[in-house]
Design goal:
mainly alpha; Arc Repressor Mutant, subunit A; 2 strands
Length: about 140
């Protein structure tokens, strides 16, 4: 017959479980942060020449990453996926009126063009002049 201590040692005690939980919590699960490749021209030229506010930068980066940094069927055309205005507002924390204003401002600067409501053409190097300078050409879509 087995000794009672050997039988009890097979079960995890509360103290042992707490120690394991602390070990797991201190190391934590390893999560890989996602990253996006943004051209240096954005930081060196665009942010210097154009006085964009934080919301416009957030919106432009979201649209840019959708087109150029993630799998996208129309990447060669510079066209992103169809977005819902309510989803854009929720993700970025904007009101619908502010979203419309920010989209118009980005279009006025020439960074984006509306293909249809919620779908945008986003320039790889942000302006037509910089696209030409860096040799960016888009497949004809329209």
């Amino acid at each position: 017959m087995e000794d009672i201590r050997s039988v009890l040692s097979q079960f995890n005690t509360k103290k042992k479980r707490d120690q394991e939980a602390v070990q797991k919590a201190s190391t934590g699960p390893v999560q890989n942060a996602s990253s996006s490749e943004i051209p240096d021209v954005f930081f060196d030229v665009i942010l210097q020449q154009y006085k964009l506010n934080r919301q416009e930068i957030s919106l432009l980066m979201l649209l840019y990453r959708q087109v150029w940094c993630r799998p996208n069927l129309y990447k060669s055309h510079g066209i992103g996926p169809l977005n819902s205005y309510s989803d854009l507002c929720a993700n970025l924390g904007f009101s619908s009126e502010d979203l419309g204003t920010f989209l118009r401002n980005l279009e006025r600067y020439g960074f984006i063009e509306t293909v249809r409501a919620g779908q945008y053409f986003v320039r790889k190097y942000f302006t037509q002049v910089l696209d030409l300078q860096y040799g960016q050409d888009y497949d004809e879509f329209f």
